[in-house]
């Protein structure tokens, strides 16, 4: 009986709480879908491209305007139904404008209007010539001048327009070693009144830290950084007049379609041309997220690469004596290693003359399709471990790479400490890696404890006749940076200080490795018709 009374009391208490909560829930009321939605359109007849809209609907709280500029445009939100838009494409063009009226509770109705807009705006011919050379023209960061990248407010405390990067201005070459300076911006005059733009970023884009999460889908490191990002494909360039009040300014604005941007990712596609000559262009872009004004300076004359000079030849092999490679210089890795040398490679490495020999003044490393010791392919891997290593300097290797689907020739270095600390703590520098399944490209890479295996510290570049002609593959290694070159043209530099890399292992001796692998993680699928392929090396030279 006592338990029953307790239960009854608890029921009454609970019921009181529920009833009290129910009494506090307000009624939502009747939801009315906005009706009688209409819009009046006023198209300016002066050729400016300005169109004014006035939408109205019964029971509407606000209106979302989609002006038809692009499929992915964000809506313009208006509480009173008024909106304006500048259409920037020159000539007579049709646009579908969608207006959505929202009522209480998010209910909505919409209409679509087709409008025809005439824009009689012509970009001054001198700007087009400077930008495109009336054809196609490449632009690069003018990295050797102060303020080539900078930021400041749009207005000062007095409400006046600011034209300088008062918050921050990059020092000359400050971003050296990052992916930023490697970008190539190409503007093209199509000859029919339209203009194109491409950004070649070698697969990596330099991001403003606040934009990384939305663009990449992962949290940023808290500072600006390079991430793989696809910028391929031609973008259209739309020009329009601007009266931002910036001085100096050409009064011309460039807007790129399909999310195009000028190298540094700020999630904006609209740039005001402050000034332009045949060799220099200054632009200003407003970052939507915070309203800050960013400044970029570009040049049509690529800036020379600052690298230390190493001129004393301290070690070399010219491969002048026929037969086996010089025993004083080289030894071999034999067999299949662990898990195909850590990469699931398909070859068995030997020191047989069928796979490695010096003849006609060159070292020849040949990968062959043959059954040998349980593997279907043979090849060779030479190294100077325990015979020659060095710290800091320049390496030049003149080589003609092996080709064919599945081949993976490489010229690289490992830290001599690998036997005590292991990989990747010892550090690895890939001077040249080539993948036969991807002809026309070579890559260089850095492997450290902070980024190994599928490292982010990698860059590829295009090359011609790599399997039929000799090219010189080089690395310049100093205390501050590691630069990679092909035929003395530098295409990638790595600086640990600018990557916030605390795992820099490249302050100790490294030894050289030459090999041709088959298949594996990077080599990929092997062509079933492959029989053999040879990497030829004319010389290896080390300077300090």
Short description:
It contains 6 helices and 37 strands.
What does this 3D model show about the protein?
The protein is mainly β. The protein has 6 helices and 37 strands. Strands 21, 23, 24, 25, 26, 28, 33, 34, 35 and 37 form a 10-stranded mixed β-sheet that branches. The longest helix is centred in the first third of the chain and has 23 residues, at 2-24. Residues 1-26 have low confidence and may be disordered.
Calculate the mean pLDDT score and round it: 90
- What share of residues are in beta strands? 35-45%
How much helix is in the residues? under 10%
Shape: elongated
Structural class: mainly beta
Indicate the low-confidence ranges by residue numbers: 1-26
Radius of gyration: 32 Å
Alpha plus pi helix count: 6
Which key features would you list for this structure?
single chain; 544 residues; mainly beta; ten-stranded mixed β-sheet; eight-stranded antiparallel β-barrel; 6 helices; 9% helix; disordered N terminus
What's the layout of helices and strands?
Layout (H helix, E strand, L loop, with lengths): L1 H23 L10 E9 L6 E9 L3 E5 L9 E3 L3 E5 L4 E12 L5 E12 L5 H8 L3 E6 L7 E4 L15 E2 L14 E6 L5 E6 L3 E4 L4 H5 L8 E4 L6 E7 L10 E5 L7 E2 L4 E7 L3 E7 L6 E7 L13 E5 L13 E2 L7 H5 L2 E3 L6 E4 L2 E11 L2 E5 L1 E3 L9 E8 L6 E9 L2 H4 L6 E7 L6 E7 L10 E5 L8 E7 L4 E5 L2 E6 L15 E9 L1 H4 L8 E12 L1
Parallel strand pairs: 13-17, 23-26
Antiparallel strand pairs: 1-2, 2-5, 3-4, 3-6, 6-7, 8-11, 8-20, 9-10, 9-20, 11-12, 12-15, 13-14, 15-16, 16-18, 18-19, 19-20, 21-37, 22-27, 24-25, 25-26, 25-37, 27-36, 28-33, 28-37, 29-30, 29-36, 30-31, 31-32, 33-34, 34-35
């Amino acid at each position: 009986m006592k338990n029953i009374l307790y239960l009854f009391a608890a029921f009454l208490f609970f019921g009181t709480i529920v009833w009290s909560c129910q009494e506090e829930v307000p009624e939502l009321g009747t939801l009315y879908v906005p009706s009688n939605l209409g819009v009046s359109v006023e198209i300016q007849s002066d050729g400016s491209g300005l169109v004014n809209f006035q939408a109205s609907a019964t029971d509407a709280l606000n209106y979302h305007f989609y002006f038809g500029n692009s499929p992915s445009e964000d809506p313009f939100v208006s509480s009173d139904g008024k909106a304006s838009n500048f259409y920037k494409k020159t000539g007579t063009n049709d646009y579908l404008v969608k207006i959505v009226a929202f009522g209480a509770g998010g209910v909505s109705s919409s209409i679509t209007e087709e409008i025809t807009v005439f824009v009689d705006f012509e970009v001054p011919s001198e700007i087009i010539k400077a930008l495109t050379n009336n054809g196609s023209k490449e632009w690069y960061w003018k990295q050797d001048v102060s303020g080539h990248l900078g930021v400041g407010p749009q207005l000062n405390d007095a409400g006046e327009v600011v034209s300088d990067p008062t918050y921050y201005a990059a020092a000359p070459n400050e971003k050296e070693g990052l992916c930023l300076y490697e970008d190539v911006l190409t503007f093209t005059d199509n000859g029919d009144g339209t203009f194109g733009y491409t950004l070649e970023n070698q697969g990596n884009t330099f991001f403003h830290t606040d934009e990384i999460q939305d663009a990449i889908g992962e949290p940023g490191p808290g500072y600006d950084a390079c991430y793989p990002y696809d910028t391929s494909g031609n973008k259209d360039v739309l020009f329009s007049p601007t009266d931002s009040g910036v001085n100096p300014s050409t009064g011309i604005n460039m807007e790129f379609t399909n999310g195009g941007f000028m190298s540094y990712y700020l999630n904006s596609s609209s740039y005001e041309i402050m000034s332009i000559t045949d060799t220099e262009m200054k632009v200003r872009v407003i970052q939507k997220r915070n309203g800050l004004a960013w400044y970029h300076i570009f040049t049509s004359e690529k800036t020379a690469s600052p690298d230390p000079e190493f001129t004393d030849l301290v070690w070399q092999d010219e491969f002048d004596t026929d037969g086996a490679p010089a025993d004083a210089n080289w030894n071999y890795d034999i067999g299949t290693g662990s898990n195909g040398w850590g990469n699931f490679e398909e070859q068995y490495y030997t020191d047989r003359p069928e796979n490695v020999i010096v003849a006609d003044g060159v070292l020849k490393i040949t990968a062959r399709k043959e059954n040998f010791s349980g593997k279907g392919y043979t090849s060779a891997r030479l190294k100077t471990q325990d015979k020659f290593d060095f710290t800091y300097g320049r390496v030049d290797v003149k080589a003609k790479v092996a080709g064919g689907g599945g081949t993976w020739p490489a010229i690289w270095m490992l830290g001599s400490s690998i036997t005590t600390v292991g990989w990747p703590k010892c550090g690895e520098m890939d001077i040249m890696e080539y993948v036969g399944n991807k002809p026309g490209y070579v890559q260089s890479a850095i492997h450290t404890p902070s980024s190994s295996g599928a490292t982010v510290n990698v860059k590829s570049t295009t090359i011609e006749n790599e399997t039929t002609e000799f090219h010189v593959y080089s690395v310049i290694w100093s205390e501050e940076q590691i630069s990679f070159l092909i035929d003395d043209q530098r295409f990638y530099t790595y600086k640990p200080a600018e990557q916030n890399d605390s795992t820099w292992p490249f302050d100790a001796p490294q030894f050289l490795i030459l090999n041709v692998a088959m298949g594996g993680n990077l080599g990929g699928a092997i062509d079933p018709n492959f029989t053999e392929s040879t990497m030829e090396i004319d010389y290896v030279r080390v300077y300090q």
